[in-house]
Each structure stands twice: as C-alpha cells, then as structure tokens.
Amino acid sequence: MDVQPQRADVLLVGGGVASVRCARTLRRHGFTGSVLIVGDEDHAPYNRPPLSKELLRDDLADELVLAEPERWYGRRAVDLLTGRRVTTIDTDAREAMLDNGGRIAFGQCLLATGAEARALPIEGGAHALLLRTLEDARRLRAAVVAADAGAAVTVIGGGFIGVEVASGLAAVGLRPTIVEMASDLWGGLLGAKLADWGAAHLIDAGVALCRGVAVTRLDEESAWIGDERLPHAFVVAGIGVRPRVELAVDAELEVGDGIVTDADQRTSHPAIWAAGDVARVDGRRVEHWHAARDAGERAARSMLSLPVPPLRVPWVFSEVAGIALDIIGQADTWEEERWMRDASVLAYLDGQQVVQLAIIGSVLSPDTARDLVEAGASVHELEDALQS
Ligand SMILES: Cc1cc2nc3c(=O)[nH]c(=O)nc-3n(C[C@H](O)[C@H](O)[C@H](O)COP(=O)(O)OP(=O)(O)OC[C@H]3O[C@@H](n4cnc5c(N)ncnc54)[C@H](O)[C@@H]3O)c2cc1C
User: At what angle do helices 17-28 and 289-303 cross, to 10 degrees?
Assistant: First the structure.
C-alpha cells in the first residue's frame, strides 16, 4: 500500500537558527500555511555560540541555549520534528524522504542543514574532541570537570573556536596550549596587529601558544609535533567546518563551496531556498550566527515575494580571554591596519577607506560599524563616529 506523504506548505530542513528565523519571519508577515521544521538532532533548535563560551565554563541547563522556548512552536503553529534526518529531496515531485521511510510533500523548501566540524585528518585524530553540537559541548564540559586543577589541555586550531575554547579552559583553571598551523592566530586572516593583541591577552590569561607548527599525531595522553610530545589531560580540535551539502548535491542543485543561491537565497530550483552556514549567497559563504539568522529572514521574505533587503556585511562576535571582540566586514585585502581610540578599534584601511573593523570591548555598536563599512566610510568619518 502506498502511504500518502505528509504535507507542509513550507518545509524547513535543518533545526538551526536559519530555519527558526525563517519560520518566525513567515509568521510575522502573516503566512497562514503549514510550516514544518525537520532537524536530525534530538533537541529543539538551539544557539551554538554559548557552547564554546558560557557552556564550557558552567553547567548550564539546555533550555538556556534554545533558539526559541519550546512553547513558541505551538503558539506560532510551527511544527517541529526532531531526531529525523531528511535523506533525499525529489525536486520533481517536491517531496522530501526521511530516514524512517516517511515522506513529506512540500510547496516550498528551505535547505538550512548547516555545517559539521572537520575531523582531524592525522594518526590518532579520533582522540580529539570536536565542538559543534550540544552533545559535543557536554562531552567537553565533562572532560573539563574530570580534569585535575591546572591540567594541561591541547587545543588544535587558533581560529575563533580554538581561541574561545582556550580562553574558557584557562578561565576554569586548566592550562591550555593552542597549536596553530599559521604563523598568527585566526589563521592570519585578521592581520598581524589583531593577532598580536589576541596573543598577548591569551598569554596573560594563562594560555600557551605554539604558532607555525602542526600537530602530527595524537595518542591517548598526548599530542605530537614531530618528535616533540605535549602531554595533556585531553585534546580539542577546532579546525573548521564542512557545509552539509549532500541533499543539494543529490538533488542536482548548483553547489560550489556551499549551496549556490542568489542574493535572495534562491537556489537553482524555483521551489528551493538555502540559508545559513550551508549556503553560498551571492558568491560568498559566511559561517556566522548573524548571517544565518538574517539569511533565514531573507529566505522567508523571498518565499513570500516580499522585497528582500540588501545583504549586510558579515558580523562575527567572539571572545578573547573574556574580552568581547566583534569583526565587521570580511575584506580579502587591505593596505594598512590602524589602531584607533586607545587601541580598542582596529581599522583595516584601503587607502583612506575603512574596509573592515575589529571592535574590542564593545566600544562601538556593531550596527554603526556595519553602516560605516557598508558606506565605504573614510577614516575621518570613523574618527567622528568614535568621538560621538
Ligand atoms: C561552538 C560554536 C560556537 C560559535 N560561536 C559563534 C559566535 O560566537 N559568533 C558567531 O557569529 N557565530 C558563532 N558560531 C557559528 C554559528 O553558530 C553558526 O553560524 C550557526 O549555527 C549557523 O546556523 P545554521 O542554521 O546555518 O546551521 P546549524 O546551526 O549548523 O544547524 C543546522 C542543523 O541542521 C541539521 N541537519 C543537517 N542535515 C540535516 C538533514 N539532512 N536533515 C535534518 N537535519 C539536518 C544539523 O544537525 C543542525 O542541527 C559558533 C558555532 C559553534 C559550533
């Protein structure tokens, strides 16, 4: 007997912030059709940023990281199916297949499947804890609690995740060492001045740094850099993510480094949108929380044929040894890095034009900073904004 598929006017694949924001925006604009979020994790959608910050330092309740409280879904008539993976999308039939054999017919579909942490491709790489999910964060927190005070921990990767994790480990009295392959923190992508600032604060907080070297293998109790052994209580790796594009590849959508969409989040199929870490929007894939949230909103507007606002420059918020760090913009090149306002704002300049900003300790609002970068403001306009 052929089982009739369940139907959703809008099917949101992936239980992350991009899907939730899409659902919220659909309802805010009066959409009355059925909306279903399918996520393969066992939790309601949650925010990942606290996993490498508050949740590492403290035993917080899961509810504190939820993207929306559980009752929100009922109130907004948003159906939520957790612990179920969409295995394939039949674009002709407009149907999604589930890992339990179920089928969901849809009118419009958003692919917001996010990204997964890259595993460490070295001998013994499986000894490294990864950090992407709430379960990963609980495992990491358990390792923290089990470690003796002052125990050494190896953190592989000096990007946003590695820097935040090492900061948190030092804050709870462990002795982390960051091993970063590039010669500077953040893979050198944020320039030498910010990397030197970050290194100084991490070292002050009790984090050791090994830059320009790679961990070559792991065993049960240590990391090896060639013949040099770093003993540790445990090891964490934060070496980047891989966008989860499999569904889109199978469905023969256009995929590059992420699912390719136009500026309105539309994929190469007219009934399918993509948003968040998995999407390459108008030529760029951004892996940050604000971008994912905004993309979900943009996709909803696009589905409803409402005007979609122009793409904003990326904004990533982070922490270094307890100090807030906001990066506004994602410039590929610049000519000069200039500290301003008592070294609390780093301006990345192309001639006199501000192409990216690093803001330390929240001294400038990210919205103002975004406006300045988007307007191609001059360094003098930035100075004026910093004085007002
Ligand atoms: C530890 C950590 C800390 C972070 N800190 C910051 C920060 O401080 N600032 C910042 O700007 N950004 C931060 N980020 C990045 C930010 O969290 C991501 O950009 C954001 O989560 C992306 O949201 P998303 O909805 O695109 O995808 P995700 O959050 O990855 O959600 C996608 C969901 O879809 C599920 N899924 C995948 N495939 C399927 C399928 N076939 N069927 C069903 N479900 C599926 C996944 O399991 C996942 O639950 C952090 C990320 C991590 C991991």
Answer: 40
Site to substitute for ligand 1 among 25, 48, 86, 88, most atoms within 8 A of C-beta: 48
Residues 302 and 138: beta-carbon distance below 8 Å: no
> In terms of pTM, does the model score above 0.90?
yes
CATH code assigned at 40: 3.50.50.60
Test site for ligand 1: of 113, 290, 362, most ligand atoms within 8 A of the Cβ = 113
Whether 11 and 68 map to the same domain: the answer is yes
Q: How far is the CA of 189 from the centre of ligand 1 (A)?
A: 22
Tokens linked to 89: 């999308």
Q: Is the CB of 187 under 6 A from ligand 1?
A: no
Asked if residue 325 is part of any domain, the answer here is: no
- What total number of domains does the chain contain? 3
pLDDT at position 63: 78
- Pair (156, 298) in one structural domain: no
Alpha carbon of 241 to ligand 1 centroid (Å): 10
Rounded CA-CA distance 234/2 in Å is 51
Q: Is 269 in the pocket of ligand 1 (CB under 6 A)?
A: no
Among residues 192, 221, 237, the one where a domain terminates is: 237
251/188 same-domain check: no
Q: What is the mean pLDDT of each run of 10 residues along the chain (388 residues)?
A: 75 98 98 98 96 89 89 97 98 97 97 98 98 96 97 98 98 98 96 98 98 97 97 98 98 97 98 98 96 98 97 97 97 97 97 98 96 97 93
Cβ–Cβ under 8 Å, residues 177 and 153: yes
